[in-house]
Write a structure and sequence with these properties.
alpha+beta, two-stranded antiparallel ribbon, 2 strands
Length: about 80
Amino acid sequence: MDYEKDFASKANFEILEGFLTELLKFDIKIEEILEIETNQDTQENKFNRVDILAKNLLKENMNIALISEITGLNIEDIEEMI
């Protein structure tokens, strides 16, 4: 699966929103994809990171550390969204 291509497309927001809604047990609405980064320095270090602006997480007053864990965003980046 090509995560960059799949999740960057607005057509696929609905799929990702549905997944996150089921995972977190409340409605999620993705407003935009902030950044997609691929690091392939070594096979072991290969990862895809999709930073998602999911305003519902902050609207629901979810703990910032939990938002960080779920999205992979740095706590500082999340605090800037507030």
